[in-house]
Amino acid sequence: MLKIDNLSAGYGDMQVLYDISLHVDEGEVVSIIGSNGAGKTTLLKILSGFVPIKAGTVLYQGEDLLKQKPRKRAEMGIAHIPQGRGILGTLTVKENLIMGAYPKAYRHTAEEGMERAFQLFPILGERQNQMAGSLSGGQQQMLAISRSLMIQPKLLLLDEPSLGLAPIVVEEMFELIAKVAEDNMSILIVEQNLHQALGVANRAYVIETGKVVLEGNSKELLANEDIQRAYLGV
Amino acid sequence: MNYWLFFQTLINGLLLGGVYSLIGVGITLVFGVMKIVNFAAGAYLVWGMYFTWVWHQVTGWEAYALIPLVIISMIIFGYITFKLTIRQVLGSDFTTFILITVGLSFFLQNLSEVVFGTSPLAVTSATALYSLRLGTFVISVPRIIAFGGMLIFVAGIGILLNKTLLGRAMRATAENAEVSQMLGINTEKTFTIAFLFGIVMAGIAGLLVTPLFFVSANVAETFRLAPLVAVVLGGLGNIKGALIGGMLVGVIEGLVSTFISADIGVAAICILFLIVVYLFPLGLFGKGARKA
Predict the structure, then answer these.
(1) Boundaries of domain holding B147
(2) Which of A63, A163, B26, B86 has the highest CB neighbour count under 10 A?
């Protein structure tokens, strides 16, 4: 599905990612875990086409993803929920959903997509004509997820979904991700919140200062003593 | 105080202000989507006037019947100038855009002098001679048409922005260009379209004033300052603000020109501008620009 090989990248003279290799298989949930400044967000920005690379390849369904313009990603079935959710606050809830199905191939599905979203989150239906900026953090997260589902993506990229949310909302959020993952969608999550990220994922990679230092099955990683020391303070 | 003169001037100012509003709304639209202030709007207005003159010479029709032809001409002309200048520096910082649109303004104005000469031309119009009587007040028909045309175009822009997919894509791009690209929006295309809308509105404003002004590159001077002041007065990026700001500027300019001296009408606009910006730094309806 998604295959990253020997990827190196950086800004100017500063190298951020060193020789990263990872892959996401069909229907798999993969987490990338790392602390601040480890290069997680840079990695996602490379996938969305906003940061150039220095070396390496990124294949999506066997095709070179980095050759494509950023806006082509949605057409190719890649949805992206950026850090801070990326809600368009000056558009209404309904308009945000409509924009979620913007690529031509999906426009005719906008109506059913919206109905699905309102079924999943009735509160969005009640507030469909309100400005999205007036929603609470949790509701904005629901909207961000619903909007990304408008194209029924094959691959969903999530950048720090827990950022800036109350703990209870974070928990709801990850329950949702787990639910969404049941639809046989591939999901790549970048996250600091180790417990949640490993809880929802099949596999995970741990990144430190731009290098993959550990990878494996989530359950194994959760039991790993190094990880427990570094991230859970046990 | 001569009340008749006061109200007559008020009406005239309001109607001319409508033209400022139309240009101002175009500037606002471009600023809203691209975060660029188009200082060349006045020069595009002049080209709108010249296109009206050219098509009038070719067809012999009334100026108002030429609206579709002038729109098409402005789109083509605007696209070429956009492609050659602003398109080249998309993604640069604000100073670049100020320099390039101010430079473009001088270039376009001088280009029109090179192409059409410096002597004023006239678009003859039968409607220019008509006026309405409202009690003792006289209102010239071209001014009413200019004002009405402005309202129609501004309402059209409102519908475009709020009810169509293109308008929503423009608003999305205005708020967050990066997220818009993630959603599959061609932000470069939305930039181009927004800019062309601004140019077309300036061109239409040019057409609407041909019965009132001689066609000449100097007209750009008249329409360079006032719409920009109107836009900032109303709160940069606010369409309703640009609409009301334009009328306010028109009225103040008219009143001062009539009652104090015609020479200081423009100075009055500047003083009004200073007072409003001092009292309301974000403009009358401004909520302040938000970054990303």
Answers:
(1) 13-218
(2) B26
Distance CA B246, CA B153 (A): 15
Q: What is the 3-state secondary structure (H, E, C) of B191-252?
A: HHHHHHHHHHHHHHHHHHHCCCCCECCCHHHHHHHHHHHHHHHHCCCCHHHHHHHHHHHHHH
Q: Using a CB-CB distance cutoff of 8 angstroms, which residues of chain A are in contact with residue B165?
A: 98, 102, 107
Torsion of CA B255, B259, B262, B264, to 10 degrees: -80
| Residue closest to B49 by CA, chosen among B250, B214, B224 | B214
B235 in any annotated domain: no
Within-domain flag for B249: no
Q: Is residue B241 part of a domain?
A: no
What span, in angstroms and rounded, lies between the C-alpha atoms of B39 and B228?
A: 8
Contact (CB, 8 A) for A7 and A160: no
Residues of B in contact with A110 (CB under 8 A): none
Q: Structural domain tally of chain B?
A: 1
pLDDT in tens, A90-130: 899 999 999 999 999 999 999 999 999 999 899 999 999 99
C-alpha closest to that of B202 among B219, B186, B189, B179: B219
Q: What's the predicted TM-score (pTM) here? A: 0.84
Enumerate long-range contacts of B264-269, CB under 8 Å, 24 or more apart. Answer: B266/B225, B266/B226, B269/B225, B269/B226, B269/B229
Using DSSP bridges, classify how beta strands A155-159 and A186-191 pair: parallel, antiparallel or unpaired: parallel
Q: What interface predicted TM-score (ipTM) does this complex get?
A: 0.87
Which residues neighbour B169 within 8 Å (Cβ) at sequence distance 6 or greater? A99, A102, B180, B185, B190
- Reported as a single tens digit per residue, the pLDDT across A18-32 is 999 999 999 899 999
In a domain, residue B224? The reply is no
